[in-house]
Every structure is written in structure tokens, then in C-alpha cells.
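Q: Please design a sequence for this.
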């Protein structure tokens, strides 16, 4: 029987998520039929954005992200949940979503190797220190640039993230489409052509996986991040590791459209990976 997986889930540690505990997500998983959860709180290390991003939530209050005691608390919550749900499920994995910024590879490596993560997801959230994942910041960034400038900066940054070999998987690959379509129209959806192919070749060489992120459907887009044709291109370039994630920032979104994403992988003759100790150990 095929498992329902969600490998991109933001518990209350993420400052932009609802202040919900890991236990609350596990209870929602039981109700929603999600068999395995990988929690992925945000880690952002760009010093230029210190005033915006360098925070997590602990005990209902903002806590400095660079004070890594929050990760000790995170793993303690993971351990308690694993004990509590050992007989009923869901299976619980400890992950991290890292916002990649060039020049900060050593900082990222020091953190991701200091803790026993099962899975580290690498994402490009910011271009030139502007968060293209944010509507507020996108409104300031996109109108001052051409689509060619945006995608060149995005794929250059993404290529450096892959070349760093710091990540098990790349998250929401065409994130610039989230708000970019409002400024550039439908051309944004084909702007990857001629730019992503060499990156996929490098990902295949490194064994880096690719996420199907379903949050795009909640935001009114018609395709996942990335779109089906990009997944086909990834497959044809040799990528074999894929994960599925809702990018939930509240329990109500846990497992949202993940079954459809798993079905898409199946239709493309691909499988979703399960990670443990940063290795894909099974597929469903």
C-alpha cells in the first residue's frame, strides 16, 4: 500500500508559521492519513537580512536563530513525539529547510553537520537579499527587473546551491513563479528553458534530489513547484530522488495535495524517497 508522505512541514519554530507544536501536527497527521512527516523549520543565515529572518519561535516568543539552543529544543520535541506515536504513527523525521545564500556555505555546513538531521532541504528564497517568497518584497523586487534578469539570478544562485553539495534535496524549484506571474505574465512559466538543464545534470551527478512542492495550488497556481514538464526534464537528465511536501505552515495544510503529487510521480514512472540520517533509504 502506497504511503502518504509530507517532507516539508513547518512547526511553530518557524517564525512565519502558526505557533503549533510538533505534537499538534502529529495528531493532524493521524486525522488526515499522513503516514510520514519530515519537519523542516526554517534556517536563514543571510546577515543582510538579520533584522527580518534571524528568528525562531520558542515558548511563544521570538528567539535569535543564531542561538542554536532552539535546535536542542526542536530535537527534544521530535524525540518525545517519536516515543508517543511509536505504535500508531506517523513516522517522524527531523529535517531542516535552509535558505541558500552565496558566500555562507561554511555557516550552513557547520550547523547542518552539528545535529542529527534526517533530511536537509535547500531552497532559494531570496535574490539580491529580497525574499521572492514574500508578496510584500516581491512587489519591490520584480518591477525593477526584467524576467531575464530574475531568472538569471535565480538559476545562478540555484546552481551554486547544488554545487555546494550541502543539501539532500532542492525545494520548490521554480519559486519565482509564485508572484512573478503577476508581473511578467505567462512567460514566467517557460523561463526555465535553457537554464535549468545543466543544473539538473549536476544534481544527478551529485545525487541531489528534487522536491515536488504542493503549496502552489493553495496560492492559485495550476501546477506544482516545479511544473510537470520540469519534472520530466529532471527525470530525463538523470535525477532519481524526489520528495513530496506541502510546505505547511499550519496543521490544516498538512498533506495538502501530497497524494496528487505522489500520483504524478507514479505516472512519470518515478518514486518518492524516504530519508533517514540524510540518506534516501526507501521509496514508495
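A: Design:
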Amino acid at each position: 500500500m502506497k504511503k502518504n508522505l509530507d517532507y516539508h512541514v513547518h512547526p511553530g519554530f518557524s517564525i512565519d508559521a502558526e505557533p503549533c507544536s510538533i505534537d499538534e501536527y502529529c495528531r493532524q497527521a493521524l486525522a488526515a492519513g499522513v503516514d510520514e512527516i519530515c519537519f523542516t523549520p526554517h534556517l536563514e543565515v543571510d546577515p543582510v537580512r538579520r533584522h527580518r529572518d534571524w528568528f525562531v519561535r520558542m515558548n511563544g516568543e521570538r528567539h535569535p536563530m543564531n542561538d542554536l539552543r532552539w535546535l536542542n529544543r526542536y530535537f527534544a520535541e521530535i524525540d518525545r513525539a517519536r516515543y508517543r506515536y511509536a505504535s500508531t504513527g506517523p513516522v517522524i523525521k527531523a529535517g531542516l529547510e535552509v535558505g541558500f545564500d552565496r558566500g555562507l556555505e561554511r555557516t550552513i555546513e557547520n550547523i547542518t553537520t552539528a545535529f542529527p538531521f534526517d533530511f536537509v532541504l535547500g531552497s532559494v528564497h531570496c535574490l539580491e537579499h529580497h525574499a521572492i517568497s514574500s508578496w510584500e518584497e516581491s512587489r519591490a523586487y520584480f518591477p525593477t527587473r526584467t524576467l531575464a534578469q530574475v531568472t538569471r539570478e535565480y538559476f545562478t544562485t540555484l546552481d551554486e546551491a547544488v554545487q555546494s553539495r550541502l543539501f539532500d534535496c532542492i525545494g520548490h524549484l521554480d519559486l519565482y513563479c509564485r508572484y512573478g506571474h503577476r508581473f511578467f505574465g505567462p512567460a514566467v512559466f517557460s523561463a526555465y528553458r535553457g537554464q535549468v538543464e545543466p543544473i539538473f545534470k549536476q544534481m544527478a551527478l551529485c545525487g541531489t534530489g528534487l522536491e515536488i512542492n504542493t503549496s502552489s495550488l493553495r496560492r492559485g497556481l495550476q501546477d506544482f513547484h516545479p511544473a510537470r514538464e520540469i519534472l520530466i526534464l529532471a527525470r530525463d537528465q538523470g535525477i532519481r530522488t524526489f520528495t513530496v511536501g506541502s510546505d505547511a505552515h499550519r496543521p490544516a495544510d498538512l498533506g495538502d495535495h501530497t497524494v496528487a503529487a505522489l500520483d504524478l510521480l507514479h505516472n512519470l514512472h518515478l518514486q518518492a524517497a524516504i530519508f533517514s540520517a540524510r540518506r534516501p533509504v526507501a521509496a514508495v
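Q: Thanks. Anything notable?
A: The CA atoms of residues 137 and 267 lie 37 Å apart. The chain is about 35% helix and 20% strand.
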